[in-house]
Every structure is written in structure tokens, then in C-alpha cells.
Amino acid sequence: MATSVNDIDMGATVWMIASSALVFLMIPGLGYFYGGMVRSKNALSLVFLCFMALAVVTLQWVIFGYSLALSETATNPFIGNFKHWLFLDVEYTPHPNAPKVPGVVYALYQCMFAALTPGLAIGGAAERIRVLPTIFYIFVWTTLVYDPIAYWVWAPNGWLFKMGVLDFAGGCAVETASGFAALAFYFVLGKRKGFGEEKWEPHNYLNIILGCSFLYFGWFGFNAGAASLESGRAGIAFMTTSLAAAAGGMTWVGLAYRVEHKFSSFHFCSGAVAGMVCVTPAASYVSTWASLPMGIIAGVCCYYMIEANLRLGIDDCIDVLAVH
After folding, report:
1. Among 52, 54, 60, which residue's Cα sits nearest to residue 24?
2. CB neighbours of 73 closer than 8 A, spacing ≥ 6?
3. Who contacts 90 (Cβ-Cβ below 8 Å, separation ≥6)?
4. Which residues contact 287 (CB under 8 A, 6 or more apart)?
5. What is the C-alpha R_g of the chain?
6. Closest C-alpha to 110, from 72, 186, 57
7. Which of 274, 295, 309, 318 could form a disulfide with 123 if both were Cys (CB 3.0 to 4.6 A apart)?
8. pLDDT tens-place values along the chain, 324 residues long
9. Are residues 227 and 284 in contact, defined by beta-carbon separation less than 8 angstroms?
10. Dihedral sign from CA coordinates of 98, 108, 18, 274
11. CA 198 to each of CA 128, 167, 201, 309: distance values in angstroms, whole numbers, following the listed order
């Protein structure tokens, strides 16, 4: 483990900083992606809330969130402590999960994960939420849901971590948590007015494609950035992410073509996101070829999950529950 500035690996540090920037790009990408899928009157508010998630979570993360989620000194198996509040002893002291990288760089990388996750969840409440209560929700949800789950799977004393659970880049803390949050939104807020009576189409396909492009590009940092030290694992994560996205996108296009008899870039974007979500927790743990069937299975399962939600009357307008 690195114990001083002289022990820091410059290459690993630069790669993690670059990966943090890539994950940051996913936040405006998410705003464009969501904004294009809803009706035009709600598009701007979703983009705004994605950026508010970044701002609120960044403040929370520095004040106490990082310490709650990733404290290496906490003995509680469920939640961290406040040793690193306001980033005390974080700047140069490496975290056990990234022993060759300054602690502040690892904290930055994880901050981008934490900021992205409530943005994902908000999609489950699209067209049914107001701005001010949602900002409050972002702060509370990150503190009470995201931070504990991140601690369970990534902190050295987390109960899932000690059980040997492997979550390479956020299958539990990011994807599963945001998916169930979307389901909770449905139970609390109910359906949109007119759901099931009117047929609503995405209002701006170009924004969807632009948002997907940002997500696609940023996901390489999201997954491969977690392999901060081993360049081989980073390369595997990069390749599995790309292959799963391609397989998921083409599978979704094929399934939709059977029904609609036309090709759509929107369908490819949905399938690509599904494939990347699927491979995220295992991005560098599986062989490259394994990401191909993972992407295909994700495309099939998520496509038919959307159909099931419609039949069950679940208003998952941006498909957060179905995909995540």
C-alpha cells in the first residue's frame, strides 16, 4: 500500500482522474437521454435535476457521504463513520481499494458514481415530480440508501464485502438501487394522468441519441476506471463494456423490428444501455466473449420487461425499472 506521495503510481492516478471525467459526462448524457424520452414540457426539468443531483451529492459527499460510504476504519458492517468528514485525512492517504492512488482522486471517482445514481432513479418519477422536493429527496436518498449500500459492497468492513461479494463497478449500489428506487417512485406517486389512455412517444430522438452517445462514452470510464492499477483488467473491462453494448443494442433492434417492421436508433440506444448495465458488476471478472451472451440476454430480458410493465399497468415511462 502506498504510504506517501512518493509511492503514488502516476499512471494509475491519471487514469482514475480521466475516468472520473468520463463518468461526469454521463450526467449530462443522462439528462439528454431522459429529456428526449419524455414530453417536451418536462424535458428541461429532467436535465436540470440531473445537474442538481451532481451539485447536491458533491456537497453531501465531501461533508460526510464519502466517510459513510467508504470509511476504511469503521467496524460497523452496515454503515461507515464520520472520520473523513470534510475529507479529513483523505487528500493524500490512499484508500485500500486504490492503494496507489491519492485518496482524494479515489474519492472524486466515487463521487461521480454517487452523483449519477439518484439521477438514474429520478427517471422513474419523470413527469410526476416537482423540483424542490426532488432536490431534498436526492440528499436524503443518497444518505440513507446509496451510502449504506456502497459501504456494504466496497468498504473493507462491509458485510457483503466480507462475504466475498464481487461488484466490479456498481451493480448493487448504482444499478439495482436506482431500479428499485424507480419502483418505489411508482408505488408512491402512481401513474401519470392519461397513462394507458393516450399513446406518448419520445419528443426528441436526436436528444436521445446524443444522450446515449455521452452515456456510451462515459461508461468506459465508469467500468474500466474501476481497474485503476491493473492495465490488463482495465482493457478487459473496456472491451466487455463495448461488446455487451453492441450485443444488447442489436438484440433490441431485432426484437423491435419483428413488431414494428422498421429500424430505429432509439431501440439501439435502449438495448446498448441495457447491455452496459448488465455487464457493469462483472466487467473485468468475465472473459471478453462472455459479455456477448450477457448483452444478448440483457436485451431480451429488458425488452420483454418493458412489455410486462405495460401489461401490469406499471408506469415506468423511461424504463428505469425494466433496464436497471
Report:
1. 54
2. 81, 83
3. 66, 84, 103, 104, 107
4. none
5. 19
6. 57
7. 318
8. 445 556 788 989 999 999 999 999 999 999 999 999 999 999 999 999 999 999 999 999 999 999 999 999 999 999 999 999 999 999 888 999 998 899 999 999 999 999 999 999 999 999 999 999 999 999 999 999 999 999 999 999 999 999 999 999 999 999 999 999 999 999 999 998 888 777 778 999 999 999 999 999 999 999 999 886 556 789 999 999 999 999 999 999 999 999 999 999 999 999 999 999 999 999 999 999 999 999 999 999 999 999 999 899 898 889 999 998
9. yes
10. positive
11. 16, 40, 10, 16
Identity of residue 174:
V
The rounded distance, in Å, linking the Cα atoms of 237 and 286 is: 9
d(CA 57, CA 134): 13
Q: Can you read off the three cell numbers belonging to residue 231?
A: 492495465
Alpha helices in the chain (DSSP H): 10-37, 40-60, 66-70, 103-122, 131-141, 147-154, 159-162, 177-189, 205-224, 231-260, 265-279, 291-312, 320-323
Distance CA 271, CA 278 (A): 11
At residue 169, φ and ψ (nearest 5 deg) are -140, 25
* 95 DSSP β-pair partners: 98
240 three-class SS: helix
CB atoms within 10 A of CB 270: 28
Within 10 A of 213 (CB to CB), how many other CB atoms are there?
16
C-alpha cell at 319: 424504463
Which domains does the chain show, CATH number per domain? 5-323 (1.10.3430.10)
Q: Measuring CA to CA, how many Å separate 186 from each of 180, 231, 249?
A: 10, 42, 27
Among 254, 283, 218, 292, CA closest to 23: 218
Distance CA 207, CA 249 (A): 17
Per the document, the length of the chain is: 324
